[in-house]
Amino acid sequence: MAGGTWEKLSQVTVLGAEYDSPECQPHPKCLKETRVNLLELIYRLLDKQDASQIIWLHDMAGVGKSAMVFTVAEKMKGLMMMETTKIKTRLMGTFFFTHKHTKCSMTSHFFVTFAYQLASNFPSIKNNVNKAIRENPAVLDSSKS
User: How far apart are CA 113 and CA 2, in angstroms?
Assistant: First the structure.
């Protein structure tokens, strides 16, 4: 990827929104033998290879959504996509919204951050991300997201 475009993208990315960033530590995890049924359902959905999966987990504050998602993200980060692809993770990206950090509390940085993570985790799409930014540099403007 061209250094200039990649550098510009990395400058507007919210690195602290990733599940394993220092800003998210210590992060909650599901205790052993808890939320087993819901975790199994999520893992089954993510294992479906015939469809792309986006799982939107929502509920009231304090019911353990963050613990669930951190637990799933950790597992997906440790799984290879396929032996033949040499891709080291099944985790496409994460964005944890929090009121602790201004940029992590707004949706305006979500798409650029996710695009950066996708291109970092799956190098085969870096050229597409680079092309999209060259064709429409306004995508890097968080006030327009």
Answer: 18
Closest to 65 in 3D by CA, of 93, 39, 92: 39
- Residues 6 or more apart whose Cβ sits within 8 Å of residue 19: 27, 69, 70, 73, 74, 77, 94, 96
Task: List pLDDT tens digits, range 60-72.
Answer: 988 888 889 889 8
The Cα–Cα gap between 63 and 41 comes to 17
Provide the Cα torsion 82, 70, 59, 104; round to 10°: -110
* CA atoms of 109 and 114, how far apart (whole Å): 9
Structure tokens at 139: 């995508």
Spatial distance between the Cα atoms of 138 and 32, rounded to a whole number of angstroms: 45
pLDDT, one tens digit per residue, over 2-15 is 458 888 999 999 98
3-state secondary structure of 115: helix
Q: Are 27 and 35 in contact (CB under 8 A)?
A: no
